Please model this.
Amino acid sequence: ASQVEKGKEQELKEQFDALRREHTEILQELQRAHEQEKLLLVESHHRSEAALQETIQALNSQLKSFQERMKRVEESLLRTDYKKHIQEHGSPSPFWEQELESLHFVIEMKNEHIHGLDKKLLHLETVEERNLLLEEKVKTLQQENEDLQVRTQNHLIMARQLSEELQAAREALEKEAQLLDQARREKEELLYRVLNAGDGSPFPMAAGEVPLIAT
Model:
């Protein structure tokens, strides 16, 4: 019976060790995945910053280009449209010439402005899509982190329960071993008294041994 109980205890201990190893491996794997995702997220953030910096530079370049186009518009209106108009229709009054110049200039600039806004809108839509993807990645990473914490807590609870069961089994085994040892000594004492009935000799006890009957 003692060997069987020892076998049970060993089996419980092996199950506990296996569960602890499994918990450690799962935790390490989840932590590695978590760190990898964090690195990817940081790298993506750096790429986004670099892309935004490039965008700023591109916008500055577009502003310079726009200013150059504005200058060309002015030169074109003064050099071509009005010269052609004067050649075909004669020189208008100064008032209408100024009004026509202003109108052409405004129309040309509005066209340039609309074209620039179209490009900027397209870029902003692309940036917004990237931000939405980045937010989704952050939410996914947060959810994975929460799942990791829950799984870790569950494994700790299981490990604690198994440890308590193992301790209870160990105590039960020790108690049963004590009972078996007590029964064995009582049997030996009874057999000794039967074999040595009448000679008055006491039952021999080991040094420091307490009589079991007293317990």
Observations:
- The chain is about 90% helix and 0% strand.
- Helices lie at 2-89, 94-195.
- The chain has a mean pLDDT of 77.
- Residues 61 and 145 are 43 Å apart (CA to CA).
